[in-house]
From TrEMBL:
CDD domains: OmpA_C-like (cd07185)
PANTHER family, per the entry: LIPOPROTEIN YIAD-RELATED, STATOR ELEMENT OF FLAGELLAR MOTOR COMPLEX
Superkingdom of this protein's organism: Bacteria
Keyword presence, Signal: yes
Recorded GO CC terms: cell outer membrane
Coiled-coil parts of chain: none
Keyword flag Membrane: yes
The OmpA-like domain, residue ranges: 103-220
Location within or outside the cell: Cell outer membrane
Protein name: Outer membrane protein OmpA-like peptidoglycan-associated protein
Keywords (A to Z) from UniProt: Cell outer membrane, Membrane, Signal
Signal sequence annotation: 1-16
Amino acid sequence: MRIKALLIAGSVSAIALTACTPVDQYSANPNQRTKEGALTGAAIGAGLGILTGKGGKDKLDRAVVGGAIGAAAGGLIGHNLDRQAAELQAQLNDSRIRVVNEGNQLRVVMPNGILFATDSAAVQGSIQNDLYTVADNLNRYPNTRVEVVGHTDNTGSATYNQDLSERRAAAVASILRSAGVSGGRIASYGRGESAPVASNLTADGQAQNRRVEILIIPTG
């Protein structure tokens, strides 16, 4: 029971570290997330170990084991995300595509201007090779699930924008599936104009809000 409790503590620490790591664009330092994940996982694992201990030496033993398990789990997740982000960013052709390592997941941000013509949900041929690159990367890292999320600016009705964002997300997800990514790993949905990342009062802000994001989330 003691080992089981500590394994749970270590696993929880690896999940909990995701809430403690600030959002940041992928750094040139390939070990950034590995170190952050290991340190945060160790701290949380040790804390949970203490909480599950019965007293004195038992708490200390559990803190040590919980910290070690948390560090290993958190470090592994961070290392895999660092490596996957670095590989993907290096292989993409269009420099306007951003790979953001958020500590618990990768966010691939693709501006709608390179994906679709105005008011269209048909993916333009010029960007499909980069989507195939994303698919190849996903196939090399199978222990992840994928969410494809469409976003728009606030031009037009909210109902229209919601529908357009859903169709655009579905179109991108369809290409990933056609490139060999298991359909069971992929979910797609639209958020319309509800999640802007910039002001819709300027043309530049609206352009930033029109995007599709591919979230790559570790599952183990």
